[in-house]
Design brief:
The complex is a heterodimer of chains A (about 110) and B (about 110). In chain A, about 0% of the residues lie in helices and about 55% in strands. Chain A is mainly β. In chain A, strands 2, 4, 5, 6, 9, 10 and 11 form a seven-stranded mixed sheet that branches. A four-stranded antiparallel sheet of chain A has the order 1-3-8-7, with no helix packed on it. The model of chain A has no long low-confidence stretch (mean pLDDT about 95). Chain B has about 110 residues and is an all-beta fold. Chain B has strands at about 5, 10-15, 20-25, 30-35, 45-50, 50-55, 60-65, 70-75, 85-90, 100, 105-110. In chain B, strands 2, 4, 5, 9, 10 and 11 form a six-stranded mixed sheet that branches. Chain B has a five-stranded antiparallel sheet with strand order 1-3-8-7-6, with no helix packed on it. The chains are: A mainly beta (about 110), B mainly beta (about 110).
Chain lengths: ~110, ~110
């Protein structure tokens, strides 16, 4: 079956702009989580959605937001981009929330100039 | 929150050698996974192993939950094993902990 699909793969944006990233989970998976990876901070949890509800949120400013649709696809949005938002954004899907294995997508590499 | 420490931070091996990668965590967990990050950034799931022992080809993993550590064994290493290995945990089981906390990773270089 198809894996976790993230689009786009690469993105270049200018400071102050906003960006929307998309994640389609494995069919049947209802939990979608987002992570940010940077050289300095490593892999950090952004938020988790399950059945269209945000279940858990990491320690990121309000410029980072997300949502989940009825088909479990998820989007994350970053507004007023800063240079420090340049990172690899990874999406993970899981059958349920908590206590189950996660499968990751290939990521979206965002560069803010 | 839960802390995850991986050791050693870097490992250089000759092709054919065996290695052990360690992950220590600070609290009880209901999920532990080992990942290999490929050169394109994707995290490839190696093992879902909150407790016990599993094997998959040349790789095996053991988690001793009561002592809060996990080990990843790589036998007869190949150059394609090179990359960064992450341990990630979810827990403790009580509370809203539906997120993975990652270690800093172990960079493995296998030389031909």
């Amino acid at each position: 079956k198809a894996g976790v699909t993230q689009t786009p793969r690469y993105l270049i944006k200018t400071r102050g702009q906003q960006v929307t990233l998309s994640c389609s989970p494995i069919s049947g998976h209802r939990s979608v989580s987002w992570y940010q990876q940077t050289p300095g901070q490593g892999l950090q949890f952004l938020f988790e959605y399950f059945s269209e509800t945000q279940r858990n949120k990491g320690n990121f400013p309000g410029r980072f937001s997300g949502r989940q649709f009825s088909n479990s696809r998820s989007e994350m949005n970053v507004s007023t981009l800063e240079l420090g938002d340049s990172a690899l954004y990874l999406c993970a899907s899981s059958p349920r929330t908590g206590g189950y294995g996660y499968t990751f997508g290939s990521g979206t590499r965002l560069t803010v100039v | 929150g839960i802390q995850v420490e991986q050791s050693p931070p870097d490992l250089i091996l000759q092709e054919g050698a065996n290695s052990t990668l360690r992950c220590n965590f600070s609290d009880s967990v209901n999920n532990l996974q080992w990942f290999h990050q490929n050169p394109w950034g994707q995290l490839i799931n190696l093992f879902y192993i909150p407790s016990g022992t599993k094997q998959n080809g040349r790789l095996s993993a053991t988690t001793v939950a009561t002592e809060r550590y996990s080990l990843l064994y790589i036998s007869s290493s190949q150059t394609t094993d090179s990359g960064v290995y992450f341990c990630a945990v979810e827990g403790p089981p009580t509370g809203a902990n539906s997120k993975l906390t990652f270690g800093k990773g172990i960079t493995l270089s296998v030389r031909p």
